[in-house]
Design goal:
This protein has helices spanning 17-30, 61-64, 93-97, 119-126, 136-143, 145-154, 167-172, 174-184, 211-219, 264-268, 293-309, 342-346, 352-371, 380-392; strands at 4-11, 36-43, 49-50, 105-108, 162-166, 189-193, 203-205, 224-229, 235-244, 247-258, 283-286, 314-322, 328-334. It is α+β, with helices and mostly antiparallel strands. A five-stranded antiparallel β-sheet has the order 11-10-9-12-13. It has a four-stranded mixed β-sheet with strand order 3-2-1-4, sandwiched between helices. Strand 12 and strand 13 (328-334) form a beta hairpin. The longest helix is centred in the last third of the chain and has 20 residues, at 352-371. The protein is globular. The N and C termini lie far apart (60 Å).
Length: 393
C-alpha cells in the first residue's frame, strides 16, 4: 500500500490565521513522511484555497504573499468539493472538478472561525473525507464559549460564573447591560467574544470605568459576547485530552505563569509562539505542574469529563483556574489547541510524531464506524405520501 495523503488544512478567514500557520509548520515537520504524504492546503485570509509544494516552507510566505492580486496565480488553486470524490462531475462542472483535492485523511488546523467551529468539518462530512478531531457538533459547541459553558454547567462540571449578551443588546441597551453585569458579577471580570480564541478581543476589567470599552471591543469580533467573573489570584492549569468514542486519556498538567493578563499582541507579536519552544512572550510553563498528586488527578478527570460532555474526538486542551482554597473552575475547552498541545503529550511519554499517528488512526476508525451506520434508503415514504394524496383527491 502507498502512503496515505494527509491534507493539512490551515490559515483561514480567522483572527487566528497566523497562529494556524505556526501549527501547520509544526505538524508538517513532525508528520512521519515514511507513512504519510502531507499535502499543504492553505486558505488565504480572503477565503481562497491553494494547494502547492511552495507552501511547505513557511519562511517563504513573505515573498509568496506580497499583497498583490497576482500572488495567487503563482500557486495551484484547489478545493474540496462538497460531495464524495467517487461521484464524477458532468457537464459544465467537469472542468471545475479538475481542481478538486483527493485526500485519504483531512487534518483541520484552522484555529477559530471557519475551521474550529464546525464549518470545515461540515464540508468534510459532505465530501465523505475522514478527518482528524471533533465532529461538527462538538466543534461548534467547543468554539462557542456560551453554549460550551451552558452544557458543562448542566452536567455538573465546575465553570466560572458568567453572563452572555448579543451584540445588538449591547448596542441598543448598553446601560442596562452594564447594570446587569455590575449587579451580578464581581471584579475582576473578563469580557470576550463568544467564538474567538488566542485572547482576540478579550479584555480584563477591574472597574466600571472601562466596562463600556471592553464591551465594544468584544463586539467587534462576534455577534455574541460572554462576560465571566474572574477568580482572584488563580493558578492557571491546563490539561490535554486524547481519544475518540469511549477511549479517552489525559496528559500531565501544566501550570502557566504570566506577568498579568496578556492580550493577543502581548502573546504572539512580542517574540513568542503559541505552544512553541520556550512558550509565549512574558510566559513560562511548568510541565508537569507543581501541584499535589490528588489535585492533578482531579484535573485530569474533569478534563476527560469535559471532553466527553462535549462529545469531542482527537486532541483537545482544557484550561482551568485553581483558586487558593483548592477549588477548580473550567475556563474553556480548545478543540484545535495551538500546536495540538504536543508539548503536554511529550511530557506524558508520547512523541509528537506518535501523537499525529494516533490522531490519523482515530480519524480513520471514526469514519469506518460512520460508514456502518444504517441510513434511510428507498422511496417507500414518498410512495405512501403520493398514494394518500391521490386517495384524498
Amino acid at each position: 500500500m502507498g502512503k496515505k495523503v494527509i491534507g493539512l488544512i490551515f490559515g483561514g478567514v480567522s483572527a487566528e490565521h497566523e497562529i494556524s500557520i505556526i501549527t501547520f509548520d509544526q505538524v508538517y515537520k513532525n508528520l512521519d513522511k515514511n507513512k504519510f504524504e502531507p499535502l499543504p492546503i492553505y486558505i488565504t485570509p480572503e477565503g481562497d484555497w491553494v494547494c502547492d509544494d511552495k507552501l511547505k516552507d513557511v519562511s517563504r510566505y513573505g515573498e509568496i504573499f506580497t499583497g498583490n492580486p497576482s500572488d495567487l496565480k503563482k500557486l495551484n488553486r484547489k478545493f474540496v468539493p462538497p460531495y464524495p470524490s467517487r461521484h464524477e462531475a458532468t457537464g459544465p462542472f467537469r472542468k471545475l472538478m479538475d481542481n478538486k483535492i483527493q485526500l485519504d485523511v483531512a487534518f483541520p488546523l484552522v484555529h477559530g472561525t471557519g475551521g474550529e467551529d464546525g464549518t470545515l468539518q461540515g464540508l468534510l462530512e459532505l465530501a465523505d473525507v475522514p478527518y482528524v478531531g471533533c465532529g461538527v457538533t462538538a466543534s461548534a459547541v467547543g468554539m462557542d464559549k456560551v453554549l460550551q459553558k451552558q452544557i458543562l454547567a448542566s452536567t455538573g462540571l465546575p465553570v466560572v460564573k458568567f453572563l452572555s449578551f448579543l451584540k445588538s443588546e449591547v448596542e441598543e441597551k448598553h446601560e442596562a447591560v452594564k447594570a446587569e453585569i455590575l449587579g451580578k458579577l464581581k471584579f475582576p471580570i473578563f469580557v470576550k467574544p463568544a467564538a474567538c480564541g488566542s485572547s482576540v478581543g478579550v479584555s480584563k476589567v477591574d472597574s466600571a470605568d472601562f466596562l463600556s470599552v471592553a464591551l465594544d471591543d468584544a463586539c467587534r469580533f462576534d455577534r455574541k459576547i460572554i462576560v465571566e467573573e474572574g477568580v482572584r489570584d488563580p493558578r492557571e492549569i491546563n490539561c490535554a485530552v486524547l481519544g475518540e468514542d469511549s477511549q479517552v486519556e489525559a496528559s500531565v498538567c501544566e501550570e502557566v505563569f504570566s506577568k498579568g493578563f496578556l492580550d493577543y499582541k502581548q502573546k504572539y507579536l512580542a517574540g513568542g509562539k503559541k505552544g512553541g519552544a520556550g512558550g509565549m512572550a512574558n510566559v513560562s510553563r511548568a510541565i508537569p505542574a507543581d501541584i499535589p498528586a490528588e489535585t492533578s488527578a482531579r484535573i485530569q478527570e474533569l478534563a476527560k469529563g469535559t471532553f466527553r460532555a462535549l462529545d469531542c474526538a482527537g486532541c483537545a486542551r482544557v484550561d482551568f483556574l485553581l483558586d487558593k482554597s483548592g477549588g477548580l473552575h473550567i475556563t474553556e475547552l480548545n478543540s484545535v489547541p495551538g500546536s495540538l498541545a504536543f508539548y503536554l503529550w511529550e511530557k506524558s511519554g508520547l512523541s509528537f510524531p506518535a501523537l499525529l499517528d494516533r490522531l490519523v488512526d482515530y480519524a480513520l476508525s471514526a469514519h469506518r464506524r460512520k460508514a456502518m451506520l444504517k441510513r434511510a434508503s428507498g422511496f417507500g415514504a414518498i410512495k405512501n405520501y403520493l398514494a394518500n394524496k391521490d386517495a384524498k383527491q
